[in-house]
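Reminder to self: tokens first, then the designed residues, so the page reads top to bottom the way the pipeline ran.
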């Protein structure tokens, strides 16, 4: 599916996308097109149409998203719904019109119901409403699953839908205003260590749990699915291991060498109570197993951030 193909990777210059593009090159992709927002505003139909005209792709891997942590989601619910819905809507519609060979949609664990049974199974995706702070983003992404399934049924478009859990790793977004939990904590602890601050403030109670997937594992999973999987059902991508935020904070403090106090700001939300995926289908359908344990991945991420002068 990959060798010699022209592939558009939206978000290909970003965190996850940069690793995916490296793997696609190694897999023998013929040409990779990485649209930049300054040239193609993917929320606009005309821009998406022009992208397809300019690139004439065989495959589109749609990673581009407007997204952030809990704070960013709370501040931008309307924008996050519109931008993520519009990008997918236009890209899938143009894929249909051009009879694209394959469309790969990367969704989000935020699409799952707030109180989905743990571990999250793909069959539970519709059994409830997502956690409120990221529901607009999650519902927008989940709507694209419905669109792909409908387009497969009516137009025979080969679209697949993948559900990665929270990602982390080198090249992540470390901006404290918009980053996710791991890069935010790494930056906070390294700054506190270097400035000899007596305490670090963490959000929530620490009782919520999360599952984290190292970015290189996620990239490998998406490329494997692009090569081998052609089904209509959504597929989870993760490690199937969870950790409480409190334990994560303690681990990052230790790995960064910070020995001060952690203060929990319980006025801030915890977000979804638990996240842990059932990853059985990914292994069965395209042979994916995560390889990087959390401590190893955190160590590599910390080393990368410090190498950037963080």
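Designed residues (310 positions):
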């Amino acid at each position: 599916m990959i060798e010699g193909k022209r592939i558009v990777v939206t978000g290909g210059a970003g965190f996850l996308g940069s690793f995916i593009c490296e793997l696609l090159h190694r897999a023998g992709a013929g040409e990779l097109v990485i649209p930049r927002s300054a040239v193609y505003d993917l929320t606009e139909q005309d821009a998406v149409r022009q992208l397809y005209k300019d690139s004439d792709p065989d495959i589109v891997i749609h990673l581009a998203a407007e997204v952030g942590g809990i704070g960013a989601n709370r501040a931008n619910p309307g924008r996050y719904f519109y931008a993520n819905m519009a990008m997918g809507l236009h890209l899938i519609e143009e894929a249909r019109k051009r009879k694209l060979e394959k469309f790969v949609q990367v969704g989000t664990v935020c699409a799952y119901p707030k109180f989905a049974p743990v571990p999250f199974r793909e069959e539970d995706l519709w059994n409830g409403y997502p956690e409120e702070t990221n529901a607009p983003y999650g519902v927008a992404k989940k709507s694209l699953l419905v669109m792909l399934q409908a387009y497969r049924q009516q137009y025979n478009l080969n679209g697949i839908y993948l559900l990665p859990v929270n990602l982390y790793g080198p090249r992540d977004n470390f901006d404290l205003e918009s980053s996710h939990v791991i890069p935010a904590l790494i930056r906070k602890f390294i700054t506190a260590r270097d400035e000899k601050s007596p305490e670090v403030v963490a959000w929530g109670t620490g009782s919520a749990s999360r599952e984290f997937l190292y970015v290189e594992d996620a990239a490998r999973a998406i490329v494997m699915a692009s090569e081998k999987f052609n089904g209509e059902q959504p597929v989870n991508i993760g490690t199937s291991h969870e950790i409480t935020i409190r334990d994560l904070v303690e681990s990052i403090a230790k790995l960064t060498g910070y020995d001060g106090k952690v203060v929990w700001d319980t006025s801030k939300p915890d977000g979804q109570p638990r996240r842990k995926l059932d990853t059985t289908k990914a292994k069965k359908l395209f042979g994916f197993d995560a390889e990087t344990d959390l401590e190893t991945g955190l160590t590599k991420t910390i080393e990368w951030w410090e190498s950037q002068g963080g």
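The radius of gyration is 19 Å.
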